[in-house]
Amino acid sequence: MNHALPPDPPRATVTLGGEPHPLLPGDTLAALLQRLGHAPEAVATAVNGAFVARALRDSHVLRDGDQVHCFKPIVGG
């Protein structure tokens, strides 16, 4: 009789700074940044090469395989 547990389902991940990070179901860009300790006003963000404004991070749901980029915002005139 085999009492082995079923294998864990594959975990969804995103890549940030070249490193994989696990996603929780329904994770948003804002939640990921908070979990990783990034101050929202200290970084600008892009997902899969498209800029995501700070005001949209709470509603931007991440998907498995997304490429997330954080960079210093460009300010000045």
Characteristic key phrases:
77 residues, mainly beta, five-stranded mixed beta sheet, 9% helix, elongated
Indicate the radius of gyration in whole angstroms.
Answer: 16 Å
Q: How do the strands of the widest beta sheet line up side by side?
A: 2-1-5-3-4
CATH class group: Alpha Beta
CATH topology: Ubiquitin-like (UB roll)
Figure out the total of helices.
1
End-to-end C-alpha gap: 72 Å
Number of strands: 5
Shape: elongated
Strand percentage: 25-35%
Largest sheet: 5 strands, mixed
Mean pLDDT value? 87
CATH homologous superfamily heading: Beta-grasp domain
Helix content: under 10%
Return the domain count. Answer: 1
Helix-strand sequence? EEHEEE
Q: Which structural category do the helix and sheet elements fall into?
A: mainly beta
Written overview of the protein:
By secondary structure, this protein is mainly beta. It has a single domain (13-71), classed as Ubiquitin-like (UB roll). Helices cover 9% and strands 26% of the residues. The protein has one helix and five strands, in the order ββαβββ. The protein has one helix spanning 29-35, and strands at 13-16, 19-22, 44-47, 50-52, 67-71. A five-stranded mixed sheet has the order 2-1-5-3-4, with no helix packed on it. The longest helix is centred in the middle third of the chain and has 7 residues, at 29-35. It is elongated. The relative contact order is 0.26. The model has no long low-confidence stretch (mean pLDDT 87). Residues 1-21 are annotated as: Disordered. This is Sulfur carrier protein ThiS.
